[in-house]
What does this fold into?
Amino acid sequence: MSYATVIEPFRAANNLAGRQLYRWTHISVDGRPVCASNGASVLADRAVGRPLACDTLFVFAGGDPAAFSDVKTFAWLRRLARSNVRLAGVSGGPFLLARAGLLDGYRATIHWIHRPAFLDAFPTLAIEPSLYVIDRRRLTCAGGTAGLDLAIELIEREHGHKLAADVSEWFIRTEPRAAHKSQRLSLRERVGISDDRVLKVLAEMEARLEEPADRRQLAKLAGLSLRQLERLFSAALGETIGECYLRIRLEEAAELLRNTGMTITAVSVACGFQNGSHFSRAFKARFGRPPSAQRRR
It folds into this structure.
């Protein structure tokens, strides 16, 4: 999806303009075909390292981008950057640009799944929860359908509003999304709760995973007594405050174990468990298997 939503608008722009505005080539680390997670293969035209004349290089990375450590690729990216090629990281691609030292001093974004591991690896970089970020010669995009928004933005900048609008209609994109829009549904939409006081507390819980707030702090935030807040949680979620907070932290831990290369200890700490054995017991009670089994899966 990350690849298709970026490349297809450029193909459509060529078609609608009646002439070749854009052309592209495919590059893989070793020059061999690249297999996507759905089984589809993309043929590569060349391998990383060969001379390349281009305006923009899009770097796509699926799976766990933190596990990619090809020194040759990083050196090649740095050479392209020095030759003033515009570099764009998509989905997990910003992780590779950061690993190559090419996001220092730039604003950037990354897919929300990769965000915790990215912040752990690069705590000094300025990461935003946006769909995409364009900062001088660095472009970063969350991936998924956000690639469509980025590509159409570039088409509009380079060839005008009319063509960009035509490309949007081609892909039945009736509502343009600005770069700063959130990658995720609002908390209200995700949990299906309308009580603003409960939503405010849930947002605080999600924001404070590594150092969880205590129940009295949460009640004060909601402007309620602890007993009143407990009643609201029971009515809205069927859980106590403590049960809900633990579930949120464990679900985040499971997500990190599935989608990042963070160690089990690092995941435990990131989700507010200072004691590894406590984390393992709580995780197994919630999911029926220990964290190590989740990582193997």
Notes: The chain has 14 helices and ten strands.
